[in-house]
Structure formats: structure tokens, C-alpha cells
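Researcher: Structure for this, please.
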Amino acid sequence: MPLREIDYGTKDYQQMLDLRYQILRKPLGLEFTSEELDRSKNDILLGCFDDDELQGCCMITDKGNDIAKLRQMAVRNGLQGTGIGRMLMIFAETVARDKGFKKLIMHARKSAIGFYEKLGYKIQGDEFLEVTIPHYVMEKDL
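Model: Predicted structure, C-alpha cell format:
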């Protein structure tokens, strides 16, 4: 499945917004704020496609000091566990490394900790609540 960067404001970007909403926000009864959407203009947007249909996505935000933050990781319902998330993570790490980042950090949902640990990410600090559910800070040196 092709992996590629997504340009802000395109048809692919609209698919990304829809997927992020369906997987990450709707189940929690949450919407995206206009501030959140505006911030993504400067992010690196990544997607995994089957033909032109988005199957999974994530975002990379520059946090300064050679640190990138992985955000909004989502894989289409019914496709979790098929390797799409793993492919996306490897792609995100490669893109981040190619752009000069030395470390990738994230706020990982507690339910996804095992997935990220298999890819070499380590928990930093204590559990906290974000978007109403438990998360941990995780990081990995690139």
C-alpha cells in the first residue's frame, strides 16, 4: 500500500480529517476545534492509501530542539491489526529522520501502549488524561 505525504487542504486531507474524526473523536463524543485544524497547516501529514482511499494516517509536529511529536494516529475500522499502523509508524520515523529530527515523542492512548512498545517506544512519566481518556508520554530516539 502506498505511503505518502498529504498536502493540507486537498481531497486527501479531507479524507484524513474524516478518518481522524471517525476513529479518534466521534467515539468520545468530541469534535475538532478550528484552532486544532489551523495548527495542522504546519504539520507533516502522512497517509497510507489503497488506490486513492485513505486506510490510515498520522501527523508529525515540530516541537523544536530536533524533537518531533507524532499525533492523530488512526487506522480505518476493520483494518486495525493488519500492519497498516506499523507501516505508517516506520514511514513516520523515516520522514522525521530525513527532516533532521533526532527523537519522536507522542501522547499514546493507554490502549495502544503495547503497539508502540513493540516498535521500540518507551513510556516517560505517569499516566494522564487527554481528550477524556488515559494516555502516556512515549518516546524513541531516531
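Researcher: Any notable elements?
Model: The longest strand covers residues 53-64. The mean pLDDT is 94.
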